[in-house]
Amino acid sequence: MAVSAETVMAIKTYQNQAEALVKNYFLADPFIPYTSVLGGIFACKVVYDLTQLVSTFYIKAYNGLTKIQRIEWNNRGMSTIHAIFITAMSLYFVFWSDLFSDQQHTGLVTLRSSQLSIVGLGVSIGYFFVDFGMIFLYYPTLGGKEYVIHHSLSTIAVAYSMLSGELQLYTYMCLISEVTTPEINMRWYLDTAGLKRSAAYLINGLAIFLAWLMARILLFLYLFYHIYWHYDQVIQMSLFGCLLTFLVPAVLFTMNLMWFGKIIKGIEESLSKETVTHIGIYQTCSSSFLHCK
């Protein structure tokens, strides 16, 4: 069917108007923080729904769960995707990008930012908003007081860093700790699916231990070291920025140490149970062998 010239012109006009709208508003520097936050919220909704859809058709254990378990299942799928995204962004900015490199002479490292770094933080804030809302809605099923404290500090610090352009390096350093989220979620999935006694469950526990040690203990010690050696630059931020720099990592590190102690205790219990199981099997086999003889 032929399209009239007037129709073609109308389509091009609408297309140009849409491109101008995106360029002048959604992608304009003043609007990037808010656009990225909305994008993060929208992405969370999409991932949540996709997790529900895929799990319904391809994971047998999912349909046997209670309503609140299915909600948590979907929520953990959402948090896993966010963790992968923000961990990749954080590793790039902290270790590979020149944005926060000491070799760059483009101003104080504590005051540097870029459009991409702002977008990354905005998407993360969108996730924290969604997750925060679900925690309050289903409290304390999806997380107790420690999760509220953790998310409150994280949201405030990330939002301030995104809007002010300050302390983005330290914000991304802290966000690398999200690398432990997929392992923790996988542990919950295995437990919920009745695979708590599987070899995968034990391997997952060891993976959590190593990831937690690297990202939430050793990396935070490096963060404190970096703050110490760049103290002259840190104190040139605003008073609130300085407060967040010293307070938030310290509180999160304290919580990380407390959780790390629980992880070690859990691994010790798991290993102890495995040892007892293997000893029991050995004794049973030995008794059977002697009985046969």
UniProtKB/TrEMBL annotation:
It comes from the Eukaryota. Keywords: Membrane, Transmembrane, Transmembrane helix. It is found in: Membrane. InterPro entries: TLC-dom (IPR006634), TLCD (IPR050846). Its main location: membrane. The chain crosses the membrane at residues 77-96, 116-140, 202-225, 237-260. Residues 68-272 form the TLC domain. This is TLC domain-containing protein. It comes from Salix suchowensis.
